[in-house]
Design brief:
Blueprint: H1 2-26, E1 36-37, E2 41-45, H2 46-50, E3 58-68, E4 71-81, E5 87-93, H3 97-103, E6 108-113, E7 123-128
Antiparallel strand pairs: 1-2, 2-6, 3-4, 4-5, 6-7
């Protein structure tokens, strides 16, 4: 009788563990955002772009600094290409470039582009969220 009770308790515990693992696997929101380029905005989630089935997509940003006798300038340049080969590049003069680049992770959604009615590149957003984890 004691052996049967131990088996029953063991089976119940195992069942609860299996159920809890499946609940954890389903918990939380998840989105997929491969590179999407419109007239004014380009966006994509780093991990989704890296995991895409095609070999054309990419998205990222770089930081560069130039100095001359007239002074120095710091630039963040973001770039993307979608699965059809359409590309977009955006350069923003920003002295906080290293902080921006360090903020990009494998679970980042990068969005950049122009602002309505303004010339040049005026918008850059780095969103880090569990929604972009795989």
């Amino acid at each position: 009788m004691k052996t049967n009770m131990q088996k029953l308790v063991g089976t119940a515990v195992l069942g609860l563990l299996m159920l809890s693992n499946s609940i954890l696997a389903w918990a939380g929101s998840k989105t997929t955002q491969e590179v999407e380029i419109s007239d004014a905005i380009a966006k994509g989630a780093v991990m989704d772009v890296r995991s895409s089935l095609d070999t054309l997509q990419y998205i990222g940003c770089t930081f560069s600094k130039s100095s001359s006798s007239a002074g120095s300038s710091s630039f963040v340049t973001c770039y993307a290409q979608d699965k059809k080969g359409k590309g977009s590049v955006c350069t923003i003069d920003n002295p906080n470039g290293p902080s921006i680049i360090k903020a990009i992770t494998n679970f980042s959604l990068i969005t950049f582009g122009t602002l309505t009615g303004r010339p040049g590149c005026g918008y850059l957003s780095i969103e880090n969220s569990s929604e972009h984890l795989r």
